[in-house]
Amino acid sequence: MFIVGVTGVLTRRNAIIVFMSVELMLNSANLTLVAFSSYMGNSVGQLFVFFVMTVAAAEAAVGLAIIIALFRNKLTLNIDEVNILKW
Amino acid sequence: MSLELILFILFAFIAAVSAVIMITRSNPVISALFLVLNFAALAGLYLLLNAQFIAVVQVIVYAGAIMVLFLFVIMLLKPEKEKFFSSHPQVKVLAIAIAVLVFLQLVYMIFLSKPLASVNPTVAASVKAGTIEQIGRELYTNYILPFEAAGYLLLAATIGALVLAKKKFE
Lengths: 87, 170
Known about the structure:
The structure holds 2 protein chains of 2 kinds. By secondary structure, chain A is mainly alpha-helical. Chain A is built from 3 helices and no strands. In chain A, helix 1 runs antiparallel to helix 2 (15-40) and helix 2 (15-40) runs antiparallel to helix 3. Chain B is an all-alpha fold. In chain B, 78% of the residues lie in helices and 0% in strands. Chain B contains 7 helices and no strands. The relative contact order of chain B is 0.07. At the A-B interface, helix 1, helix 2 and helix 3 of A face helix 1, helix 2, helix 3, helix 4 and helix 5 of B.
């Protein structure tokens, strides 16, 4: 699933889909953490998953706000056309 | 085969397939819906791994809040039809190379690493670790500082999102 997420980030050109792929990668990492936490009988891993979810929620909110601002300025979601950071 | 194992394989299969479908659809709405399916399957997996609290949080936060946000933005922006690998053909090669590399790395880690010898998992300990009681106790004693930091992070994200999405005053 992590690999699918990586592939999604690297191949898709739609900013929203790239975003969803990032969520996919975060979730696969969460799954590993929960699996090991359950395997070791230790709840610290699940705590960490909790924090990862917090960060993911914050990241999704800010990222989608950036996408909206970007769309308002450039009227596109194709990340190849967004090159304002290019020098 | 026990019911637990069957359910585990079923949920894992749903998660993997829906992930693949998600990144191959060209319509973002369908992608988002398959992502919801993926999250639901993950919540089922968490339940099977005795992580009740995380399973519930997964459904509420991801399948609820984050996906509503995504669908809202998709509806708001009405994305045009996109094409794969639009302008740079060399990006495709690079992307596939990186994906294969990371995949090989993971395979190496999974199959060639030694499992921890000192772990003796018991089902009771694992069930106890997943309860809200245990997680809450850890959260409010040993991990109080990260907890507060997460609160501030969410506040900062809320304000940041508002500032970014707000129309500029001229």
